[in-house]
Write a structure and sequence with these properties.
Largest sheet: 2 strands, antiparallel
Number of strands: 8
Order of helices and strands: HHHHHHHEEEEHHHHEHEHHHEEHH
Shape: globular
């Protein structure tokens, strides 16, 4: 899905990120990542009885994610469009997608390790066992001391209790910060050399609190104060909003009367997002995934699993939609609003449940290959499970292969590293490359449409190509693990 979003989102706005409020296809990618990461945590950690070893593995994997996040999204890599590498440390972007995943994974995995009894056994395959755990978390741990014969279940209750307290504290803190922080007037300098306003200094009038609009929200204010405006994302989605361009939701030249903030940077993965919003949304979404993972581990009946998964997913989805359309809290990926968390986490849960039900899957051990940076929830689902009836597994093998080598596909395809390598071999002009020739002559000219041609190019020349590459690597037993 990341390949589709990055490759075709510019031509198909419904695929790309929403300019501000709202939710397009691309806005579901990150929460689906985090949901699957959360599901992976209880399955992977239950095989590591030594807590110290588990902590070490979690920390090492987190550091690897942070490293690749800075390399790929910090400005060092300019692939695939520019044939150069390197970044001015005065303008490096410290926050990004992989960094957000790393933080969510670190916090939730450590919480899982510290609160989990290493000897927890399987629970009976009845809904009551899990529902009792959910009820016990509200009554406290005193019940555990009175019931020695349910000590294993109490261990799970402690985990749920800790997760719930963490999520509630983060949510309250986030809401207080986002609505109570005073945002003063601020100014910025245009650093875009292609802009006719290059080098000019603009002032944005705010002097308010509790606003969720692009120029005067607390997220951007804290990022500017802590990160510095030069270290923020220079191409925010809000530049495609109606206030900025007549071509909205497509990219285009700014309107003559466009407000000054249209040219300002904004980081959807900035400090407030990275520490508070990320903790509220990313960690909360990951915690929801952890809950689904616990259900998968401790309940043996497919039907009972679905009885727990589906209602929770529907409840989250409906609650988030109500918050948005009642104008209480709008859906907003840039701010990671609470309604956005509910809608996307609920959608991830429902999509996962649908695929689980559709294929009537059997548990498999291939989850470890796609714990982080999976290509999409669909791809991750087929990495989690092996389809064993209806003869559908063969049809979805390409997605399963991508899930098994997700990090490789993410780096080479979604981040454009392989295309950047190919673009380095050009004829007469850097614009005359193999990639350009394939796009123009095989896809765009054949279909007589830029939009359709680019979409088909992404599907066949990128997604399908890397699925086949991942399949060959799987056959050879080669995997890129974190």
């Amino acid at each position: 899905m990341m390949i589709l979003v990055d490759g075709a989102g510019g031509e198909w706005p419904v695929i790309g990120h929403a300019p501000w409020n709202g939710c397009n296809l691309a806005d579901f990618v990150m929460p689906f990542f985090l949901f699957i990461v959360g599901m992976a945590i209880p399955l992977s950690l239950k095989r590591i009885p030594n807590r110290l070893l588990a902590v070490r593995r979690v920390v090492v994997r987190t550091l690897k994610l942070l490293f690749w996040g800075i390399i790929l999204q910090g400005g060092y890599s300019h692939a695939p469009d520019k044939l150069s590498y390197g970044v001015d440390m005065k303008h490096i972007r410290w926050c990004g997608i992989l960094q957000r995943i790393a933080l969510a994974y670190l916090v939730v995995a450590l919480l899982e390790i510290l609160t989990k009894d290493a000897k927890v056994g399987d629970q009976p395959s009845t809904p009551c066992s899990i529902f009792k755990l959910c009820c016990w978390q509200w009554y406290g741990s005193s019940h555990c001391a009175r019931a020695r014969n349910v000590s294993q279940r109490c261990s799970e209750a402690h985990i749920l209790h800790s997760n719930l307290i963490l999520a509630a504290c983060i949510l309250v803190t986030y809401l207080l910060v986002i609505y109570e922080t005073y945002v003063p007037d601020w100014e910025f300098t245009v650093h875009n050399t292609d802009s006719q306003d290059y080098g000019k200094v603009f002032t944005v009038a705010c002097g308010t609190r509790g606003k969720l609009d692009p120029p005067c929200n607390a997220v951007g204010y804290i990022d500017r104060q802590v990160l510095g405006i030069n270290h923020m994302y220079q191409h925010p989605a809000w530049k495609r909003s109606k206030a900025c361009t007549n071509n909205s939701p497509h990219e285009g030249p700014f309107r003559k009367n466009a407000p000054a903030w249209c040219q300002a940077p904004f980081d959807p993965e900035g400090i407030l997002s990275f520490i508070l919003c990320s903790s509220m949304s990313s960690i909360l979404t990951t915690i929801i995934g952890v809950h689904y993972g616990h259900v998968l581990v401790h309940m043996k009946s497919h039907l009972n699993r679905l009885k727990l998964w589906v209602p929770m997913g529907l409840a989250l989805l409906i609650f988030g939609i109500i918050l948005h359309f009642s104008h209480a809290i709008p859906l907003n990926k840039q701010l990671y609003s609470f309604s956005y968390v509910c809608v996307t986490a609920g959608a991830a849960a429902i999509v996962f449940s649908i695929f689980y039900f559709l294929f009537h899957v059997s548990y498999a051990s291939s989850l470890m290959y796609m714990k982080v940076c999976c290509a999409s929830c669909v791809m991750a689902t087929h990495s989690l499970f092996r389809v064993d009836i209806l003869g559908l597994r063969t049809l979805f093998l390409p997605l399963e292969w991508i899930g098994m080598n997700a990090m490789l596909v993410f780096v080479m395809a979604a981040e454009g590293i392989f295309e950047g390598f190919l673009n380095g071999w050009y004829y007469e002009s850097p614009n005359n490359t193999l990639v350009y020739w394939i796009q123009k002559h095989i896809f765009i000219k054949v279909w007589h449409s830029q939009r359709v041609g680019i979409l088909l190019y992404v599907i066949f020349a990128q997604i399908l190509f890397w699925a086949l590459v991942a399949g060959v690597l799987h056959h050879l037993g080669i995997y890129w693990k974190l």
